[in-house]
Amino acid sequence: MFVVFEVIIAAIIVIAIIGLLKVFTGQRVQRREAYILSFQFPVSIKAKVLQVYPHLTESEIDLVMQGLRDYFQVCNLAGNKMVSMPSQVVDVAWHEFILFTRNYALFCQQGLGRFLHHTPAEAMTSPTIAQEGIKRAWRFACKKDRIDPNAAFTLPLLFAIDAKLQIADGFTYHLNCQVAGASGYCAGHIGCGGGSGDGYDSSDSSCGGSSCSSCGGGD
Fold it and tell me: Any stretches that span the bilayer, and where are they (predicted)?
């Protein structure tokens, strides 16, 4: 009887510890989210984006900066999982931000808990890893924009912005897979499947994306 009592007590303690860890993790994610939302990016990032894409208006460049902020929010939500960059124009802004090495390193530490490396998709160790990264980006970008990733009625900003801003070398995603193919990628397939418990099917190769990274981690 005493042994049973000890087992019950131990189980209660374990459950309590797990609950506290979940609360702590949630608070940490929220703290980092607030930091990312309030962070002031270097103003020269906008100038770089305009240099690469001179057809963009001031309000459209502001949208690119929102996309950059969204990407970091997605990385925050993904924890230490690898997340691909689904937008070419946002990738340009990200790359320019990295050039401010000290500022960027501080941002990563405060907003993500670790340094976020910029790795082009072609440098990934395998196509499957890059595909998993874009699927994870889809899942968390949808979550952020309050969209069902498996039954999306619209594209989250990170997946819509290149087409919206008519980025010539950008990535175009379609909810309707019948109009994808040569003109873009099928976003409807990105959110399908499970497999790794992260809301994606790594066997699906119908996804695009520019650069990848290992997001989050640390404290």
Answer: 6-24
